[in-house]
Amino acid sequence: MALDDHKLRVFCTVAETKSFSKASEIIHLTQPAVSLQIQALEEMYETKLFDRTSSAVTLTPAGEILYRYAKHILSLYALAEKEIGELTGLVKGSVSVGASTTIANYLLPRVIADFKKTRPKVKINMQVGNTKRVVELLKGGNIDIGLVEGEVARQKLTMEKLIEDELVLIVPPQHQFAKKKEVSVFEVTSEPFIMREEGSGTRQMIEKYLEKHGITPQNMRISMILGSTEAIKQAVENGLGISIISRWAALKEVKFETLKTVSFKEERFLRNFTLIYPKHEVLSHAAEEFLDYLRKYDFLKLLS
Q1: Are 170 and 242 a contacting pair, CB within 8 Å?
Q2: Is residue 97 domain-shared with residue 48, that is, in the same domain?
Q3: CA angle at 154 for the pair 150 and 155, rounded to the nearest 5°
């Protein structure tokens, strides 16, 4: 009896997330639809594949066997597609990319547009989430490549530095800091400051950077807490305070002179944008091409 790869993907996602609800979020299916796919597999093998308790979903011994083979089958599908693509010289198919917000909003649209000029038959699907979410999507086999800010745990993943990102101070053009190339991190404490919300990766980085220089949130004049970079830029443009964001996120505003960016005197506030993909899995021909394109892409031209 033939197995369809969709059922196997659903099965692997439930096995990896240990949760029907998490799996349904990741693969954009309702929870009952996920349960039906698993039920169909259990009927086919006439055995339970998962033990469901109130706190967790774990694989049964039969489930463990199917999981091992399912991963192998899915990688064979990818390998067949890749070899046929290499033979015909035609790069087609789709690539699923997961990216954290700054990368998804400010870098990838231009990169994807340039890639499509060279590979018009490849479809790129993009999912946006924080670093933790991108890692989950990747481990569940729901995206081919991830692009995240900062570092991630290496477990089962290959990591490569893509480019460096500088976090800079943004101020309105008429602000006293606007004429300076650099300001001291200590000068920031005397200005109304707009902070990202709790749980934001960028906020954690900002707090860590300030802490390194002996500055705690209590020393700051925090005037507002906002949940997105776009909201922060608007607030700064309207003179409600200053803030720290990625240089990439302020490109348009700097170009149209509605914001000015300023670096820090003590040391540049740097982080990496990182490329992540599964360590032992075969990427499709289209995904390999896009990965290669990302590695060679001249990101600095976007800054000019």
Answers
A1: yes
A2: no
A3: 140
The whole domain housing 237 covers 166-270
pTM of the prediction? Answer: 0.69
Any idea which residue has 């990368």 for tokens? 103
Does 172 lie in the same domain as 159? no
Query: Is 281 in the same domain as 140?
Result: yes
Q: What tens digit of pLDDT does each residue of 191-237 get?
A: 999 998 887 778 888 999 999 999 988 889 999 999 889 999 999 99
> 211: burial class by Cβ within 10 Å (0-12, 13-18, 19+)?
exposed
pLDDT tens digit string along 8-59? 889 998 998 888 988 888 777 898 999 999 999 999 999 999 998 777 899 9
Residue at 60: amino acid letter: T
